[in-house]
Amino acid sequence: MQPRGLRRRIAAAAASLLLAAAGVALTTGPASAHDQLISTNPADGSTLATLPAQVTLTFGELVLNTNGGTQVKVTDSTGKTINAGPTVVKDNVVSQGVAGGASGTVTVLWRVVSEDGHPVSGQFSFTVQGAGATIAPVPTGTPSPTPAPAPASTSSPVLWVIGGIVLVVVVVIVIAVLVTRRRPAETESSDDRES
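The line above is the sequence of CopC domain-containing protein; the predicted structure tokens follow.
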């Protein structure tokens, strides 16, 4: 009756390999979407009476603060850079100081490294009226009129890995329990054959 025991072991090993492969496949989660710009201050397309002291960009996820990965360049209507000080990253908010008395169209070019490690870039602009001009008040903290971003995946690759590891551990425990239960029965039947 050894062939039957051998078949059981081969079947158990095959099932273990199949379940382990399924666990590995499950740990590869869906690709996470790159970070998206949620809002800017001043808002894209807004008109202001004076140049603000800084521009602020708010993203949907954490922005990585890597060497040279985060860049914000603010230029006036002549193309002159009007940045003041370093770009500051705090969680999902990026700020850049602005200097000078620029008027006209101000363009903000930005590049950040999203939480998944990929660079994301874009630009927005706003207008600064010259001295003495009257403009209708425009709120500066509203999001730019862009389509709503697709909902970000709330699953994290870490959760997929942990789930896969838990699955593999459970499978190994089940197989170990089944093998240990069968061994005493096999031992008893072999003892019966000897007598």
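Note on the example: The longest helix spans residues 157-194. Residues 88 and 95 are 5 Å apart (CA to CA).
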